[in-house]
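Long-time lurker. I teach an intro course on protein structure, and each term I like to show students one example going from raw sequence to a predicted 3D structure in token notation. This year I'd like something fresh instead of my usual example. Would anyone be willing to generate the tokens for the chain below so I can use it in lecture? Attribution to the forum is fine with me.
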Amino acid sequence: MKEVDIMKPISFYLVTDTHYFETSLGAEGKAYEEHMKREQYFLRESGPIASSTFEHIAKDKETEIVLIAGDLTKNGEVESHKSFIKELYKLKDSGKRIYVITAGHDYGKSFAFKNDERIEAEGADFDALPEMYKDFGYGEAIAFDEPTHSYVAQLADGIRLLGICCDSLDQPKGAMDERHLAWTKEQLDKAKADNCNVIAMCHYPIIPSVPVFDLVGDAKIKEWRKIASFLADNGVELILTGHMHIQSINEFYSEKGNRLIDICTACLPGSPAQYRKISVDENSVMKVSSIEIGDFGWDLNGLTAKEYCDKQFNNAILERIFKALSGGKGIVKHLKKLGTRVVTNGTVGGVGRFLWIKVPKAIRKTKLTELIGNIGVGIFLGDMPYVEGTPEFEVINKLMNRFSFIIKKIEPKLEKDSIKVDLKDMILNTIGSRKPYSDNNAEITLK
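-- Reply from a regular --
Happy to contribute to a lecture. Here you go:
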């Protein structure tokens, strides 16, 4: 079969994880506030954020394509879908062509908040989703896989979109079974025969966004090395993903030497609250630009929209830590209380003294909560700055060395498919990016 021509010029916006929540379902009260303590992204603000973002995209008269990579709603509430679709129609009326895929948060068991309680709400039926979003990709499909709702659409002359849906009723969530792979192979073969390049979109990252996510079950597609090799060896070089609410760009090479580039993008209504504009020029140079959400019409008490989202995420990280440190019995309960006091009141220098670790002067007085929050928010923002030579790297490196005897015992238990785990390297490569390009703004030549 002949080789496909180089990628033709194209430009599009990429938005992921809009998690739209219709506030008439309830966005106040005790149950709502309790839920929001540990929520990374906003519910009450999700509508205004989506609306203002779409208004900004609508002003760009040169780029007409918008791709949205799943988790369109909070939890598949029918009312949330209805309201989100209204926003999509407004964007479409501005001249945009919109292509969505759906994911696990778009159907099934849904909830609302009423009278200080969390209650069930009407959830969308999985089989109804393609009809609901027929004007946003599904109605243009030149191929449609009914069991999964994956589809192919013609984005432009010589360029097709492969929308891979991995959350369906007949296969494990976040997976591609052999039947699904066979259907996908058929579509990729047809694209080659028609001299079309393929841009793929999947809700789940194919490549773990940061090294430690390789250890997290649903942080990437199941059997990710197999799927990445399959896509790369069948002509897909670029895939657009979401799910992990993170800004990352990663490369993977198959054993045959074929490359897959995975551009994972943040949750729109939550830190780091960004979306992308991606363009490919006549020389196949892909430019990736990240855009922060702007003002969405709320009083944010002097904070920028990004700062407002970062504060929510930071608080959610600490709340989850405190939750993990609560409860227990006997010595466990005592140790958890001690851990809570350390996290709440401790400084990096104080923890260092306790563990006999010398802490650089620059961060000795830094509150432990501040360091934890900065690392947590920073990982999801991408381009993690804590590389070798920074005081944060030095402290965490020493901490890893201090507990190396424990780490060595843990690593064999983390191995999968005979792939050895270097936990220390994973952690250090997560807090400090070693990539030759940015996770947020990059130029990469497509092959």
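Some talking points for your students: Residues 10-298+440-445 form a domain with the Purple Acid Phosphatase; chain A, domain 2 fold (CATH 3.60.21.10). The CA atoms of residues 295 and 304 lie 7 Å apart.
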